[in-house]
Amino acid sequence: MTAPWLVVVDPQNIFAAPDSEWGSPFFADAMTNIATLAESFGENVLVTRWMPTADRSTSWGEYFAAWPFADRPASDALYELVPAARELSPHPTLDLPTFGKWGAEIEAIVGRGAHVVLTGVSTDCCVLSTALAGADAGARLTVATDACAGSTSENHAVALHVMGLYPPQITLATTAEVLAAR
Description:
The structure is a single chain. The protein is of the alpha/beta class. It has a single domain, classed as Rossmann fold, CATH 3.40.50.850. Helix content is 36%, strand content 19%. The chain has helices at 13-16, 27-41, 59-66, 104-110, 123-136, 153-163, 175-181; strands at 5-9, 45-50, 94-96, 115-121, 140-149, 170-173. The chain has a six-stranded parallel beta sheet with strand order 3-2-1-4-5-6. The longest helix has 15 residues, at 27-41. It is globular.
């Protein structure tokens, strides 16, 4: 089996900024733990970005109508990585217009059936969507619970509970537990 990977889901300004409708109040704490994990994973770190490029003729059209503040060009500063995430990975970001980032693109980088430690934002949307698709694809996922940021503490807890229902494909661990297992 290949070395495990750290995947950092969507550490972008739109999810970090306190004045953003999607800003997580827990982003800074999660980012501290993400940086600690990234040091341990070396070159096996991949950062993703959610991009507002989905086809508006699908249900994404209604989504952007519900969240007009996010209906901006992909080049908008809201979609840039936060400064602390810019140097986490030697690889280009994986930019996708989907909540879940698991698919052929990520498997081409980390490998099919890989062990991946998931971190990022938001626990109750993009991390959850990535984890469930990864489990279906046969990946071995560990969600670093304190290296994820939810929209609220309640939503974070619920998302972790749901992901915890998927062993052995998905396990939950703290940053300290992930590091101790390396």
